[in-house]
Amino acid sequence: MSLAAHGFLSPSGVEIAFLLVGLVTFGAALVTVTTKQLVHAALWLVVTLGGLAVEYLLLTAEFIAWVQVLIYLGSVVVLLLFGLMLTKAPVGRSPDADSGNRPVALAVAVAAAVSLVWVVVDAFRTTWIDLDGPAQGSTEVTGHFLFRNWVLPFEALSVLLLAALVGAIVLSRKRATATRNSRSGKEQR
């Protein structure tokens, strides 16, 4: 007896896990952008980025999954939380986090999502994956793409993150200095 081929109506366990993790990741992303508490948004971002790493593992792109964990979960989220602490952002609900333009923001987000899906589908409509070459998620192929095509954008991103960190430190020092100066002015009177 021959085994029946996988089809759309008979998903494998990996496909079911991919769908379930994708739904959890999508839900965490929605909570990230809709919560009014900044620290909670950063923590939901951890769940979102962790879900993406699991999706990469399910796609057998282990190197990309570990890069996701090390760079995004290990660095970017820590930098974000560090910036929140340095700028003394409010821990609880922040009335400044909601501008009242939710319908406009939703319309822009939907328009951006539709246009992004349209561009990606249109760009890869006739693209075929070469299954005879090295696996697309392998370290060899990823290193080739990174060090040939994407070195400059990665370096630009690292400079941008460094500038954000320095900016957060400068902002926190100005506020601390202003607070100290106002206190010493009151004490001298």
UniProtKB/TrEMBL annotation:
Domain of life: Bacteria
Major location category of this protein: membrane
A GO cellular component entry from the record: plasma membrane
PANTHER family: NADH-UBIQUINONE OXIDOREDUCTASE CHAIN 6
Assigned keywords, A-Z: Cell membrane, Membrane, NAD, Quinone, Transmembrane, Transmembrane helix
Coiled-coil ranges from the UniProt annotation: none
Topology in the lipid bilayer: Multi-pass membrane protein
Family assignment from sequence similarity: Belongs to the complex I subunit 6 family.
Localization of this protein: Cell membrane
UniProt-recorded name of the protein: NADH-quinone oxidoreductase subunit J
Gene Ontology MF term list: NADH dehydrogenase (ubiquinone) activity; quinone binding
Role noted for this protein: NDH-1 shuttles electrons from NADH, via FMN and iron-sulfur (Fe-S) centers, to quinones in the respiratory chain. Couples the redox reaction to proton translocation (for every two electrons transferred, four hydrogen ions are translocated across the cytoplasmic membrane), and thus conserves the redox energy in a proton gradient.
Catalytic activity: a quinone + NADH + 5 H(+)(in) = a quinol + NAD(+) + 4 H(+)(out)
Organism: Streptomyces scopuliridis RB72
TM helices/strands, residue ranges: 16-34, 41-59, 65-84, 104-121, 150-171
Class of enzymatic activity (EC top level): translocase
The enzyme's E.C. designation: 7.1.1.-
